[in-house]
Design a protein that fits this description.
- This protein is mainly alpha-helical and 167 residues long.
- It has helices at residues 6-12, 24-27, 58-64, 71-75, 107-116, 121-139, 152-166, and strands at residues 33-37, 53-57, 93-95, 102-104.
- It contains 7 helices and 4 strands.
- The strands form 2 sheets. It has a two-stranded antiparallel sheet. A two-stranded antiparallel sheet has the order 3-4.
- Strand 3 (93-95) and strand 4 (102-104) form a beta hairpin.
- The mean pLDDT is 89.
C-alpha cells in the first residue's frame, strides 16, 4: 500500500534518497527506490502518516532497516536526522574533502551515518567522482559573450546552455 506513494515521494524528494541524497538515476533507477518509514515503529499503524514516509535508495533502506534509537541513545543525542524538518548536511554531517567519507559532527550525525550506511564504498566513490568533475568544470570555466548578431531565439538557447552548465 505504501508503494502507492512512490511517485509522490519521487516528486517531493526531487528524485533523491532522503538519507544519502543520491539521485535516483545513480542509485539504479526508479526500481531501486523505495518507500521508507522514517520511524519504523509507525509501520503497524492502521493509518499511515505521509510525513513518516521518505524516499530512500534500496541501499539506505536496507541499511537502516527497522533501526530506531533506544530511549537512552536518544537522551545522549543519538537519532536519525529528519531532512524534512532540519538541516542535516552542513550542520550534523560534513564531507571530508580528502577521503570523501562523511563525518558526523554531532551525536545525531554520527548515528545517522552509521545506521544509514552513508560511508558505503559506492557512495564514497560517487562523492569522489562528483568532486573531481566539479574541479574539472571549474578549471575549464569560460565566459561566453553573446555577439550582437545572434538572433533572440538563439540567444535564449545559449542562455539555457549556460544555465544547464551552471547547474
Amino acid at each position: 500500500m505504501c508503494r502507492d506513494y512512490l511517485q509522490n515521494l519521487i516528486s517531493d524528494f526531487e528524485s533523491r534518497c532522503a538519507y544519502s541524497m543520491q539521485h535516483m538515476s545513480r542509485a539504479g533507477g526508479e526500481s531501486c527506490m523505495e518507500v521508507e518509514h522514517f520511524d519504523p515503529r509507525r509501520k503497524q499503524d492502521s493509518l499511515q502518516s505521509y510525513e513518516n514516509l521518505f524516499l530512500a535508495s534500496r541501499h539506505c533502506n536496507l541499511a537502516k532497516g527497522d533501526e530506531w534509537p533506544s530511549r537512552s541513545d536518544r537522551r545522549r543525542g543519538m537519532r536519525f536526522l529528519n531532512c524534512c524538518k532540519e538541516a542535516d548536511y552542513g550542520v550534523h554531517i560534513l564531507e571530508d574533502p580528502v577521503t570523501h567519507r562523511l563525518v558526523g559532527v554531532t551525536s545525531a550525525g554520527q548515528y545517522h551515518i552509521r545506521y544509514c550506511g552513508l560511508n558505503a564504498g559506492h557512495l564514497v566513490e560517487e562523492r569522489r567522482n562528483r568532486t573531481e568533475i566539479l574541479g574539472r568544470l571549474e578549471e575549464c570555466a569560460v565566459g561566453i559573450k553573446r555577439p550582437g548578431w545572434i538572433s533572440p531565439q538563439d540567444g535564449i538557447a545559449l542562455d539555457r546552455l549556460v544555465d544547464a552548465n551552471r547547474e
